Protein backbone atom coordinates (compact mmCIF):
# COMPACT_ATOMS: atom_id res chain seq x y z
CA UNK A 1 0.00 0.00 0.00
CA UNK A 2 1.53 3.28 -1.03
CA UNK A 3 -0.75 5.74 0.76
CA UNK A 4 1.04 7.80 3.45
CA UNK A 5 0.00 7.29 7.05
CA UNK A 6 -2.80 9.62 8.11
CA UNK A 7 -2.40 8.73 11.77
CA UNK A 8 -0.98 6.07 14.11
CA UNK A 9 -4.23 4.76 15.60
CA UNK A 10 -7.71 4.95 14.10
CA UNK A 11 -10.44 4.35 16.68
CA UNK A 12 -13.82 3.47 15.17
CA UNK A 13 -16.56 4.26 17.71
CA UNK A 14 -16.73 7.11 20.24
CA UNK A 15 -18.67 5.27 22.96
CA UNK A 16 -17.17 4.69 26.42
CA UNK A 17 -14.46 2.33 25.10
CA UNK A 18 -13.38 4.57 22.21
CA UNK A 19 -13.41 7.74 24.31
CA UNK A 20 -11.37 6.10 27.11
CA UNK A 21 -8.79 4.85 24.62
CA UNK A 22 -8.65 8.29 22.99
CA UNK A 23 -8.01 10.02 26.34
CA UNK A 24 -5.26 7.56 27.22
CA UNK A 25 -3.57 7.95 23.82
CA UNK A 26 -3.96 11.74 23.94
CA UNK A 27 -2.23 12.04 27.31
CA UNK A 28 0.58 9.85 25.94
CA UNK A 29 1.02 12.11 22.91
CA UNK A 30 0.08 9.34 20.42
CA UNK A 31 -1.37 10.49 17.07
CA UNK A 32 -4.90 9.10 16.61
CA UNK A 33 -8.26 9.76 14.98
CA UNK A 34 -11.56 8.99 16.68
CA UNK A 35 -14.52 8.55 14.33
CA UNK A 36 -18.18 7.70 14.93
CA UNK A 37 -20.90 6.94 12.42
CA UNK A 38 -23.57 8.71 14.50
CA UNK A 39 -24.32 12.31 13.55
CA UNK A 40 -24.12 13.43 17.16
CA UNK A 41 -23.20 12.09 20.62
CA UNK A 42 -25.34 9.29 22.05
CA UNK A 43 -28.09 10.60 24.37
CA UNK A 44 -29.34 7.51 26.27
CA UNK A 45 -28.87 6.32 29.85
CA UNK A 46 -27.98 2.66 29.04
CA UNK A 47 -24.92 1.86 31.23
CA UNK A 48 -25.58 3.83 34.37
CA UNK A 49 -23.45 2.01 36.96
CA UNK A 50 -19.76 2.81 37.32
CA UNK A 51 -18.10 0.11 39.39
CA UNK A 52 -15.35 0.84 41.97
CA UNK A 53 -12.51 -0.42 39.74
CA UNK A 54 -13.68 1.86 36.93
CA UNK A 55 -13.78 4.77 39.37
CA UNK A 56 -10.10 4.10 40.05
CA UNK A 57 -9.40 4.06 36.31
CA UNK A 58 -11.30 7.32 35.92
CA UNK A 59 -9.30 8.85 38.77
CA UNK A 60 -6.12 8.11 36.83
CA UNK A 61 -7.61 9.57 33.64
CA UNK A 62 -8.49 12.82 35.45
CA UNK A 63 -12.29 12.57 35.17
CA UNK A 64 -13.31 11.27 38.57
CA UNK A 65 -14.02 14.63 40.24
CA UNK A 66 -16.65 15.74 37.66
CA UNK A 67 -18.17 12.25 37.71
CA UNK A 68 -18.56 12.24 41.50
CA UNK A 69 -19.93 15.79 41.36
CA UNK A 70 -22.52 14.81 38.71
CA UNK A 71 -23.61 11.27 39.68
CA UNK A 72 -24.83 9.81 42.94
CA UNK A 73 -25.33 6.61 44.92
CA UNK A 74 -27.82 3.89 43.94
CA UNK A 75 -31.07 4.22 45.90
CA UNK A 76 -32.60 1.10 47.49
CA UNK A 77 -34.65 -1.21 45.27
CA UNK A 78 -38.32 -1.07 46.33
CA UNK A 79 -40.23 -4.20 45.25
CA UNK A 80 -44.01 -3.75 45.33
CA UNK A 81 -46.36 -6.64 46.10
CA UNK A 82 -49.74 -6.88 44.31
CA UNK A 83 -51.46 -5.65 47.51
CA UNK A 84 -49.44 -2.36 47.41
CA UNK A 85 -47.05 -3.29 50.22
CA UNK A 86 -43.34 -3.26 49.47
CA UNK A 87 -39.93 -4.50 50.56
CA UNK A 88 -36.71 -2.56 50.18
CA UNK A 89 -33.28 -4.03 49.52
CA UNK A 90 -29.92 -2.59 48.52
CA UNK A 91 -28.90 -3.38 44.93
CA UNK A 92 -25.46 -4.50 46.10
CA UNK A 93 -23.97 -5.96 49.23
CA UNK A 94 -22.89 -3.22 51.63
CA UNK A 95 -19.27 -2.12 51.49
CA UNK A 96 -17.32 0.65 53.15
CA UNK A 97 -14.30 2.39 51.67
CA UNK A 98 -10.92 1.47 53.12
CA UNK A 99 -7.40 2.88 52.69
CA UNK A 100 -6.70 0.15 50.11
CA UNK A 101 -10.09 0.47 48.33
CA UNK A 102 -11.16 4.10 48.39
CA UNK A 103 -14.28 3.54 46.27
CA UNK A 104 -16.46 0.80 47.72
CA UNK A 105 -19.83 1.37 46.09
CA UNK A 106 -20.76 1.87 42.42
CA UNK A 107 -21.59 5.39 41.28
CA UNK A 108 -24.78 5.94 39.33
CA UNK A 109 -24.10 8.12 36.31
CA UNK A 110 -26.19 7.78 33.14
CA UNK A 111 -24.09 6.83 30.13
CA UNK A 112 -24.71 10.09 28.24
CA UNK A 113 -23.29 12.04 31.20
CA UNK A 114 -20.29 9.70 31.50
CA UNK A 115 -19.63 10.20 27.81
CA UNK A 116 -20.07 13.98 28.10
CA UNK A 117 -17.43 14.11 30.85
CA UNK A 118 -15.06 11.90 28.83
CA UNK A 119 -15.54 14.13 25.75
CA UNK A 120 -14.83 17.21 27.86
CA UNK A 121 -11.57 15.68 29.12
CA UNK A 122 -10.64 14.76 25.56
CA UNK A 123 -11.35 18.34 24.48
CA UNK A 124 -9.10 19.60 27.29
CA UNK A 125 -6.37 17.39 25.80
CA UNK A 126 -7.01 19.00 22.39
CA UNK A 127 -9.13 16.37 20.60
CA UNK A 128 -12.74 15.89 19.52
CA UNK A 129 -14.51 12.86 18.04
CA UNK A 130 -15.43 13.17 14.37
CA UNK A 131 -19.14 12.41 14.02
CA UNK A 132 -20.93 11.38 10.82
CA UNK A 133 -17.85 9.31 9.88
CA UNK A 134 -18.81 5.68 9.31
CA UNK A 135 -16.17 3.02 8.76
CA UNK A 136 -17.28 0.84 5.84
CA UNK A 137 -14.14 -0.92 4.60
CA UNK A 138 -10.91 -2.37 5.98
CA UNK A 139 -7.83 -3.46 4.11
CA UNK A 140 -4.57 -4.29 5.85
CA UNK A 141 -0.93 -5.24 5.30
CA UNK A 142 1.99 -5.87 7.65
CA UNK A 143 2.51 -2.15 8.38
CA UNK A 144 -1.02 -0.92 8.83
CA UNK A 145 -4.60 -0.56 7.75
CA UNK A 146 -6.46 1.36 5.07
CA UNK A 147 -9.90 2.28 6.34
CA UNK A 148 -12.63 3.40 3.95
CA UNK A 149 -15.38 5.68 5.22
CA UNK A 150 -18.96 5.86 3.94
CA UNK A 151 -18.24 9.21 2.23
CA UNK A 152 -15.47 7.58 0.17
CA UNK A 153 -12.49 8.95 2.14
CA UNK A 154 -9.65 6.60 2.98
CA UNK A 155 -7.47 6.83 6.09
CA UNK A 156 -4.20 4.96 6.52
CA UNK A 157 -3.31 4.07 10.13
CA UNK A 158 -0.72 1.82 11.76
CA UNK A 159 -3.44 0.30 13.98
CA UNK A 160 -7.23 0.20 13.86
CA UNK A 161 -9.30 -0.34 17.01
CA UNK A 162 -12.91 -1.40 16.49
CA UNK A 163 -14.72 0.08 19.49
CA UNK A 164 -17.88 0.11 17.42
CA UNK A 165 -20.34 -1.63 19.75
CA UNK A 166 -22.21 -4.93 19.85
CA UNK A 167 -23.08 -4.96 16.14
CA UNK A 168 -19.44 -4.12 15.30
CA UNK A 169 -18.71 -3.56 11.62
CA UNK A 170 -15.05 -4.30 12.34
CA UNK A 171 -15.79 -7.72 13.88
CA UNK A 172 -17.98 -8.64 10.90
CA UNK A 173 -15.47 -7.36 8.33
CA UNK A 174 -12.75 -9.52 9.91
CA UNK A 175 -15.14 -12.48 10.04
CA UNK A 176 -14.48 -13.00 13.76
CA UNK A 177 -16.93 -15.45 15.34
CA UNK A 178 -19.16 -14.13 18.16
CA UNK A 179 -20.51 -17.27 19.82
CA UNK A 180 -22.80 -17.24 22.84
CA UNK A 181 -26.49 -17.07 23.43
CA UNK A 182 -29.48 -14.83 22.95
CA UNK A 183 -31.98 -15.09 25.79
CA UNK A 184 -35.68 -15.34 24.88
CA UNK A 185 -37.80 -12.19 24.87
CA UNK A 186 -37.07 -8.51 24.44
CA UNK A 187 -36.47 -5.77 27.01
CA UNK A 188 -37.15 -2.05 26.92
CA UNK A 189 -35.31 0.97 28.29
CA UNK A 190 -36.70 4.52 28.22
CA UNK A 191 -35.45 7.81 29.74
CA UNK A 192 -38.53 9.74 30.78
CA UNK A 193 -39.94 12.61 32.77
CA UNK A 194 -42.79 11.36 34.91
CA UNK A 195 -44.90 12.18 37.95
CA UNK A 196 -46.31 9.93 40.64
CA UNK A 197 -43.14 8.37 42.05
CA UNK A 198 -40.58 9.52 44.62
CA UNK A 199 -36.89 9.75 43.73
CA UNK A 200 -35.65 7.99 46.87
CA UNK A 201 -36.03 4.43 45.51
CA UNK A 202 -35.71 2.28 42.38
CA UNK A 203 -39.38 1.25 42.11
CA UNK A 204 -40.04 -2.28 40.80
CA UNK A 205 -43.51 -3.64 39.98
CA UNK A 206 -44.40 -7.16 38.87
CA UNK A 207 -42.06 -10.13 38.61
CA UNK A 208 -39.96 -11.43 35.79
CA UNK A 209 -42.41 -14.29 35.26
CA UNK A 210 -45.29 -11.86 34.82
CA UNK A 211 -44.58 -8.52 33.21
CA UNK A 212 -42.18 -6.35 35.10
CA UNK A 213 -41.61 -2.63 34.94
CA UNK A 214 -39.08 -0.68 37.00
CA UNK A 215 -38.40 3.04 37.43
CA UNK A 216 -34.90 4.14 38.40
CA UNK A 217 -34.35 7.82 39.27
CA UNK A 218 -31.28 8.73 37.23
CA UNK A 219 -28.68 10.54 39.34
CA UNK A 220 -27.52 13.83 37.84
CA UNK A 221 -30.85 14.36 36.03
CA UNK A 222 -34.56 14.74 36.77
CA UNK A 223 -35.31 11.68 34.63
CA UNK A 224 -36.47 8.16 35.44
CA UNK A 225 -35.06 5.22 33.48
CA UNK A 226 -37.91 2.79 32.80
CA UNK A 227 -36.88 -0.82 32.25
CA UNK A 228 -38.79 -4.05 31.85
CA UNK A 229 -40.19 -6.53 29.36
CA UNK A 230 -40.72 -4.81 26.00
CA UNK A 231 -44.29 -3.79 25.13
CA UNK A 232 -46.17 -6.25 22.92
CA UNK A 233 -45.85 -3.90 19.94
CA UNK A 234 -42.07 -3.41 20.43
CA UNK A 235 -40.46 -0.03 19.60
CA UNK A 236 -43.83 1.29 18.46
CA UNK A 237 -45.01 1.01 22.08
CA UNK A 238 -42.36 3.39 23.42
CA UNK A 239 -44.40 6.58 22.97
CA UNK A 240 -45.83 8.56 25.90
CA UNK A 241 -49.23 6.91 25.36
CA UNK A 242 -47.74 3.45 24.87
CA UNK A 243 -45.61 3.67 28.02
CA UNK A 244 -48.51 4.99 30.10
CA UNK A 245 -50.65 2.06 28.96
CA UNK A 246 -47.87 -0.40 29.91
CA UNK A 247 -47.46 1.31 33.30
CA UNK A 248 -51.20 1.15 34.09
CA UNK A 249 -51.35 -2.49 33.12
CA UNK A 250 -48.24 -3.61 35.06
CA UNK A 251 -48.49 -1.43 38.18
CA UNK A 252 -52.26 -1.09 38.56
CA UNK A 253 -51.66 2.65 39.11
CA UNK A 254 -53.07 5.43 36.96
CA UNK A 255 -51.22 8.11 38.95
CA UNK A 256 -47.78 7.23 37.55
CA UNK A 257 -47.74 9.28 34.37
CA UNK A 258 -45.00 9.77 31.77
CA UNK A 259 -44.96 13.30 30.30
CA UNK A 260 -41.87 13.20 28.09
CA UNK A 261 -39.72 10.47 26.50
CA UNK A 262 -36.12 11.56 25.84
CA UNK A 263 -34.66 8.31 24.52
CA UNK A 264 -36.07 4.79 24.32
CA UNK A 265 -35.05 1.46 22.87
CA UNK A 266 -36.06 -2.20 22.64
CA UNK A 267 -33.17 -4.65 22.86
CA UNK A 268 -32.44 -8.37 23.08
CA UNK A 269 -30.49 -9.91 25.95
CA UNK A 270 -27.26 -11.44 24.68
CA UNK A 271 -24.17 -13.01 26.17
CA UNK A 272 -21.51 -13.32 23.49
CA UNK A 273 -17.71 -13.27 23.30
CA UNK A 274 -15.56 -12.71 20.21
CA UNK A 275 -13.30 -15.61 19.22
CA UNK A 276 -10.37 -13.24 18.78
CA UNK A 277 -9.56 -9.68 19.78
CA UNK A 278 -6.84 -9.18 17.17
CA UNK A 279 -6.37 -9.88 13.49
CA UNK A 280 -3.09 -8.40 12.26
CA UNK A 281 -3.20 -4.67 12.84
CA UNK A 282 -6.87 -4.56 13.85
CA UNK A 283 -8.13 -4.95 17.42
CA UNK A 284 -11.56 -5.15 19.04
CA UNK A 285 -12.50 -3.40 22.30
CA UNK A 286 -15.65 -3.02 24.38
CA UNK A 287 -19.05 -4.32 23.28
CA UNK A 288 -17.53 -5.13 19.87
CA UNK A 289 -15.67 -7.94 21.68
CA UNK A 290 -18.23 -8.97 24.33
CA UNK A 291 -21.87 -8.28 25.11
CA UNK A 292 -23.62 -8.92 28.40
CA UNK A 293 -27.12 -8.73 29.83
CA UNK A 294 -27.31 -5.44 31.82
CA UNK A 295 -28.13 -7.21 35.12
CA UNK A 296 -24.57 -7.17 36.43
CA UNK A 297 -23.85 -3.54 35.50
CA UNK A 298 -20.66 -4.79 33.83
CA UNK A 299 -20.70 -3.97 30.09
CA UNK A 300 -19.56 -0.37 30.13
CA UNK A 301 -17.08 -1.10 32.92
CA UNK A 302 -15.51 -4.01 31.07
CA UNK A 303 -15.38 -1.88 27.91
CA UNK A 304 -13.52 1.03 29.46
CA UNK A 305 -11.09 -1.34 31.17
CA UNK A 306 -10.35 -3.00 27.80
CA UNK A 307 -9.35 0.42 26.51
CA UNK A 308 -7.28 1.11 29.61
CA UNK A 309 -5.39 -2.17 29.13
CA UNK A 310 -4.79 -1.46 25.44
CA UNK A 311 -3.80 2.24 25.49
CA UNK A 312 -0.38 1.95 27.11
CA UNK A 313 0.49 -1.13 25.04
CA UNK A 314 -0.31 0.58 21.74
CA UNK A 315 1.70 3.64 22.83
CA UNK A 316 4.68 1.46 23.85
CA UNK A 317 4.70 -0.51 20.59
CA UNK A 318 4.41 2.67 18.52
CA UNK A 319 7.43 3.96 20.46
CA UNK A 320 9.46 0.83 19.64
CA UNK A 321 8.53 -1.88 22.19
CA UNK A 322 8.23 -5.43 20.77
CA UNK A 323 4.95 -5.95 18.92
CA UNK A 324 4.27 -9.08 20.99
CA UNK A 325 3.16 -6.70 23.76
CA UNK A 326 -0.08 -6.21 21.81
CA UNK A 327 -0.84 -9.94 22.05
CA UNK A 328 -1.03 -9.64 25.82
CA UNK A 329 -4.16 -7.49 25.32
CA UNK A 330 -6.32 -10.40 24.15
CA UNK A 331 -4.53 -12.83 26.50
CA UNK A 332 -5.39 -10.62 29.49
CA UNK A 333 -8.77 -9.17 28.59
CA UNK A 334 -10.60 -12.06 26.89
CA UNK A 335 -10.62 -14.32 30.00
CA UNK A 336 -11.89 -11.36 32.03
CA UNK A 337 -14.78 -10.84 29.60
CA UNK A 338 -15.56 -14.59 29.71
CA UNK A 339 -15.79 -14.42 33.52
CA UNK A 340 -17.93 -11.28 33.44
CA UNK A 341 -20.32 -12.95 30.96
CA UNK A 342 -20.77 -15.80 33.43
CA UNK A 343 -21.45 -13.35 36.26
CA UNK A 344 -23.97 -11.29 34.26
CA UNK A 345 -25.90 -14.36 33.11
CA UNK A 346 -25.94 -15.84 36.64
CA UNK A 347 -27.33 -12.58 37.98
CA UNK A 348 -29.91 -12.52 35.18
CA UNK A 349 -31.02 -16.03 36.16
CA UNK A 350 -31.29 -14.92 39.81
CA UNK A 351 -33.21 -11.79 38.81
CA UNK A 352 -35.81 -14.11 37.26
CA UNK A 353 -36.44 -15.79 40.62
CA UNK A 354 -38.61 -14.53 43.46
CA UNK A 355 -35.59 -13.73 45.66
CA UNK A 356 -34.17 -11.46 42.99
CA UNK A 357 -30.48 -10.72 42.48
CA UNK A 358 -27.88 -8.91 44.54
CA UNK A 359 -24.64 -7.62 43.08
CA UNK A 360 -21.81 -8.93 45.24
CA UNK A 361 -18.15 -8.05 45.57
CA UNK A 362 -17.29 -9.62 42.23
CA UNK A 363 -19.47 -7.02 40.45
CA UNK A 364 -17.14 -4.27 41.72
CA UNK A 365 -14.28 -5.63 39.60
CA UNK A 366 -11.66 -4.94 42.29
CA UNK A 367 -10.40 -8.52 42.41
CA UNK A 368 -9.91 -8.90 38.66
CA UNK A 369 -6.29 -9.17 37.64
CA UNK A 370 -3.80 -10.73 35.27
CA UNK A 371 -2.25 -13.55 37.26
CA UNK A 372 -0.60 -15.95 34.82
CA UNK A 373 -0.11 -13.26 32.15
CA UNK A 374 3.29 -13.18 30.47
CA UNK A 375 3.50 -9.63 31.83
CA UNK A 376 3.23 -10.87 35.43
CA UNK A 377 6.80 -11.72 36.44
CA UNK A 378 6.96 -14.04 39.44
CA UNK A 379 10.31 -13.66 41.21
CA UNK A 380 9.22 -15.82 44.13
CA UNK A 381 9.17 -12.93 46.59
CA UNK A 382 6.53 -13.27 49.34
CA UNK A 383 4.37 -10.18 49.88
CA UNK A 384 0.71 -9.28 50.35
CA UNK A 385 0.43 -8.51 46.64
CA UNK A 386 1.38 -10.82 43.78
CA UNK A 387 2.22 -10.20 40.11
CA UNK A 388 -1.03 -9.56 38.20
CA UNK A 389 -2.95 -8.17 41.20
CA UNK A 390 -4.56 -4.75 41.17
CA UNK A 391 -2.21 -2.34 42.99
CA UNK A 392 -4.05 -1.22 46.15
CA UNK A 393 -4.20 2.36 47.33
CA UNK A 394 -2.61 3.44 50.65
CA UNK A 395 -2.31 6.86 52.30
CA UNK A 396 1.39 7.57 52.93
CA UNK A 397 1.94 10.80 54.82
CA UNK A 398 0.30 13.52 52.77
CA UNK A 399 0.16 11.44 49.58
CA UNK A 400 -1.85 8.43 48.37
CA UNK A 401 -0.31 5.62 46.33
CA UNK A 402 -2.93 6.30 43.64
CA UNK A 403 -1.63 9.88 43.33
CA UNK A 404 1.87 8.54 42.70
CA UNK A 405 0.56 6.00 40.16
CA UNK A 406 -1.61 8.58 38.34
CA UNK A 407 -0.32 9.37 34.86
CA UNK A 408 0.95 7.39 31.88
CA UNK A 409 4.14 6.07 33.53
CA UNK A 410 5.28 2.83 35.20
CA UNK A 411 6.04 3.10 38.93
CA UNK A 412 8.53 1.42 41.25
CA UNK A 413 7.52 1.62 44.90
CA UNK A 414 9.78 0.64 47.78
CA UNK A 415 13.54 0.21 47.96
CA UNK A 416 14.36 0.28 44.30
CA UNK A 417 17.72 -0.93 42.97
CA UNK A 418 16.64 0.51 39.60
CA UNK A 419 17.15 4.11 38.53
CA UNK A 420 14.25 6.22 37.26
CA UNK A 421 14.13 6.83 33.50
CA UNK A 422 11.66 8.38 31.06
CA UNK A 423 8.40 6.51 31.58
CA UNK A 424 9.41 5.09 35.01
CA UNK A 425 8.80 6.90 38.30
CA UNK A 426 10.64 5.57 41.36
CA UNK A 427 9.13 6.46 44.74
CA UNK A 428 10.09 5.39 48.24
CA UNK A 429 7.03 6.52 50.18
CA UNK A 430 7.05 7.41 53.85
CA UNK A 431 4.68 4.92 55.38
CA UNK A 432 3.68 7.13 58.33
CA UNK A 433 0.67 5.11 59.46
CA UNK A 434 1.58 1.64 58.21
CA UNK A 435 -1.10 1.55 55.48
CA UNK A 436 1.43 0.79 52.75
CA UNK A 437 2.86 -2.15 54.73
CA UNK A 438 -0.69 -3.26 55.43
CA UNK A 439 -1.63 -3.34 51.75
CA UNK A 440 1.63 -4.42 50.13
CA UNK A 441 3.51 -6.32 52.86
CA UNK A 442 6.88 -6.06 51.08
CA UNK A 443 9.93 -7.77 52.61
CA UNK A 444 13.01 -5.81 53.73
CA UNK A 445 14.74 -4.30 50.64
CA UNK A 446 11.61 -5.22 48.64
CA UNK A 447 10.01 -3.24 45.84
CA UNK A 448 6.99 -3.51 43.62
CA UNK A 449 6.80 -2.57 39.94
CA UNK A 450 3.38 -1.25 38.91
CA UNK A 451 2.19 -1.14 35.30
CA UNK A 452 0.74 2.05 33.81
CA UNK A 453 -2.76 0.53 34.19
CA UNK A 454 -2.32 -0.03 37.93
CA UNK A 455 -1.56 -3.78 38.06
CA UNK A 456 1.47 -5.33 39.75
CA UNK A 457 4.10 -6.36 37.19
CA UNK A 458 6.46 -7.90 39.73
CA UNK A 459 7.53 -7.94 43.35
CA UNK A 460 11.29 -8.07 43.79
CA UNK A 461 14.30 -7.52 46.01
CA UNK A 462 17.69 -5.92 45.37
CA UNK A 463 19.12 -9.20 44.02
CA UNK A 464 16.48 -9.25 41.25
CA UNK A 465 17.82 -6.10 39.59
CA UNK A 466 19.02 -7.78 36.36
CA UNK A 467 15.75 -9.66 35.85
CA UNK A 468 13.71 -6.52 36.31
CA UNK A 469 15.97 -4.57 33.94
CA UNK A 470 15.39 -7.26 31.29
CA UNK A 471 11.63 -7.07 31.90
CA UNK A 472 11.62 -3.29 31.51
CA UNK A 473 13.38 -3.66 28.15
CA UNK A 474 10.63 -5.99 26.96
CA UNK A 475 8.00 -3.36 27.66
CA UNK A 476 9.92 -0.60 25.96
CA UNK A 477 11.58 1.15 28.94
C1 LIG B 1 -30.51 -1.09 29.39
C2 LIG B 1 -29.03 -1.18 29.50
C3 LIG B 1 -28.45 -1.01 30.75
C4 LIG B 1 -27.08 -1.11 30.89
N1 LIG B 1 -26.56 -0.94 32.13
C5 LIG B 1 -25.22 -1.03 32.32
C6 LIG B 1 -24.62 -0.78 33.60
O1 LIG B 1 -25.31 -0.48 34.60
N2 LIG B 1 -23.28 -0.89 33.71
C7 LIG B 1 -22.49 -1.21 32.63
O2 LIG B 1 -21.27 -1.33 32.80
N3 LIG B 1 -23.02 -1.39 31.39
C8 LIG B 1 -24.35 -1.32 31.20
N4 LIG B 1 -24.88 -1.48 29.94
C9 LIG B 1 -23.97 -1.77 28.80
C10 LIG B 1 -23.29 -0.54 28.19
O3 LIG B 1 -24.25 0.36 27.71
C11 LIG B 1 -22.33 -0.97 27.05
O4 LIG B 1 -21.55 -2.04 27.50
C12 LIG B 1 -21.43 0.17 26.57
O5 LIG B 1 -22.15 1.15 25.88
C13 LIG B 1 -20.31 -0.36 25.65
O6 LIG B 1 -19.49 0.69 25.25
P1 LIG B 1 -18.71 0.63 23.86
O7 LIG B 1 -17.94 1.91 23.76
O8 LIG B 1 -17.98 -0.64 23.72
O9 LIG B 1 -19.84 0.56 22.74
P2 LIG B 1 -21.09 1.60 22.37
O10 LIG B 1 -21.43 2.37 23.57
O11 LIG B 1 -22.08 0.74 21.73
O12 LIG B 1 -20.40 2.57 21.34
C14 LIG B 1 -20.08 2.18 20.02
C15 LIG B 1 -19.99 3.40 19.12
O13 LIG B 1 -19.53 2.99 17.84
C16 LIG B 1 -20.23 3.72 16.84
N5 LIG B 1 -20.17 2.93 15.60
C17 LIG B 1 -20.84 1.79 15.30
N6 LIG B 1 -20.51 1.36 14.07
C18 LIG B 1 -19.61 2.24 13.57
C19 LIG B 1 -18.89 2.34 12.34
N7 LIG B 1 -19.04 1.42 11.35
N8 LIG B 1 -18.05 3.38 12.17
C20 LIG B 1 -17.88 4.31 13.15
N9 LIG B 1 -18.54 4.27 14.33
C21 LIG B 1 -19.38 3.24 14.54
C22 LIG B 1 -21.62 3.88 17.43
O14 LIG B 1 -22.30 4.98 16.83
C23 LIG B 1 -21.32 4.11 18.91
O15 LIG B 1 -21.19 5.48 19.22
C24 LIG B 1 -26.25 -1.39 29.76
C25 LIG B 1 -26.83 -1.55 28.50
C26 LIG B 1 -28.20 -1.46 28.37
C27 LIG B 1 -28.80 -1.66 27.01
Give the tags.
477 residues; Alpha-Beta Plaits; Glutaredoxin; 3 domains; 27% helix; binds flavin-adenine dinucleotide
3D structure, described in words:
The chain is an alpha+beta fold and 477 residues long. The protein has three domains: 7-70 and 106-180 and 271-364, FAD/NAD(P)-binding domain, CATH 3.50.50.60; 181-270, 2-Layer Sandwich (Alpha-Beta Plaits), CATH 3.30.70; 395-474, Glutaredoxin, CATH 3.40.30. It is 27% helix and 25% strand. It has eleven helices and 23 strands. The chain has helices spanning 16-27, 52-60, 64-70, 111-124, 169-173, 240-251, 299-318, 324-351, 401-405, 435-440, 465-474; strands spanning 7-12, 32-35, 49-50, 77-80, 86-89, 107-108, 135-140, 145-149, 154-162, 180-195, 202-205, 213-217, 224-229, 257-273, 278-279, 282-284, 290-291, 395-396, 399-400, 410-414, 424-427, 446-450, 456-461. The strands form five sheets. An eight-stranded mixed beta sheet has the order 5-4-11-12-13-10-14-17. Strands 1, 2, 7, 8, 9, 15 and 16 form a seven-stranded mixed beta sheet that branches. A four-stranded mixed beta sheet has the order 21-20-22-23, with no helix packed on it. Strand 7 and strand 8 form a beta hairpin. It is globular and about 75 Å long. It starts with 6 loop residues before the first strand and ends with a helix. The mean pLDDT is 94. Flavin-adenine dinucleotide binds next to helix 1 and helix 7.
Amino acid sequence: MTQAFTTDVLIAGAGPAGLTLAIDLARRGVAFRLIDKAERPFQGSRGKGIQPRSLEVFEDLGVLAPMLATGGPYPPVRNYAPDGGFEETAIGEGATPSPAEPYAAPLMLPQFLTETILRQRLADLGHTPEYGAELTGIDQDAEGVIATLADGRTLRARWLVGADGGRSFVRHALDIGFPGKTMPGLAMVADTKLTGLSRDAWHVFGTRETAQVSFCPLAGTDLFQIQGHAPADGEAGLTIEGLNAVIRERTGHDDIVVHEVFWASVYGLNARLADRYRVGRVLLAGDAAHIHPPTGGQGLNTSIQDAYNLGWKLAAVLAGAPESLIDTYEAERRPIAAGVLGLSTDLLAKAMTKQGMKRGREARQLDLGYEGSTLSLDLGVEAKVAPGDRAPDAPCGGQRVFEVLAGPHWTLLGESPIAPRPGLVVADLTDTDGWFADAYGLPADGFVLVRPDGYIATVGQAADKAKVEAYLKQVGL
